[in-house]
Design a protein that fits this description.
The protein has about 210 residues and is an alpha+beta fold. The chain is built from five helices and ten strands; from the N terminus they run αααααββββββββββ.
Length: about 210
């Protein structure tokens, strides 16, 4: 069901510290089981509509593995929920400081693409803020997000190619792009070193 990369390396966020990984595993496990049950899906049904194996979904719900970014997107899309609905931690609002040592990171299966959340997961929101890092020659393909979802990216370091709906845009230091993310898109590092970007993702409905 899932591709070979997910089977061989399903659970290794690149920069997460052990305590951060533990909390993320717990949050994803709890949220996935709760949302799946509310949707009335069995593990078998969710596996069929998401393209992720039943065994992998079971491992995630049992808190035995941290899924890759691409795998989480497949599950979120199948459940028709925003990506962060699967990684939310319960809690209240107010002022929050997100320490670098406590931030949550997820990576692609090969570790070439890393996404670090720069916002507290435990507050209601329509907007999310991420730091993206793409290794030299790294590439990440993203499936279409929920209808109405938009992305606003700015390149802090390096040069990248962003493909949206089959059209490729090359961006350099300081360049920004805004696009509707409810269509397949991808990120590719075409520079000499690591690329660093900041992403603001906006949803139609409040989540969290």
């Amino acid at each position: 069901m899932e591709d070979e990369r997910e089977r061989s390396n399903p659970a290794e966020p690149l920069d997460a510290r052990p305590s951060d990984a533990d909390s993320l595993v717990e949050a994803v496990a709890e949220n996935l089981k709760r949302i799946r049950t509310r949707r009335g899906h069995s593990l078998e049904r969710l596996a069929k509509i998401s393209g992720v194996s039943r065994a992998m979904l079971s491992q995630i719900e049992l808190g035995k593995s941290v899924p890759t970014i691409s795998l989480l997107w497949k599950v979120a899309r199948a459940l028709d929920v925003p990506f962060a609905a699967l990684t939310n931690l319960s809690g209240g609002g107010g002022t929050a400081v997100v320490r670098a040592s406590n931030s949550k990171s997820l990576s692609s299966a090969d570790g070439s693409f890393t996404s670090r959340a720069l916002f507290p997961y435990d507050t209601p929101r329509k907007t999310e803020f991420y730091e993206l890092r793409i290794r030299h020659q790294g590439f990440e393909a993203a499936e279409a997000h929920a209808p109405g979802t938009t992305e606003n990216l700015i390149v802090a370091e390096g040069s990248v190619e962003i493909e949206v709906g089959g059209v490729v845009y090359r961006l350099f230091d300081g360049d920004a792009i805004f696009f509707e993310a409810d269509t397949p898109h991808s990120y590719r590092n075409v520079g000499a070193g690591e690329a660093r970007l900041f992403l603001v993702m906006t949803y139609v409905e409040v989540i969290g």
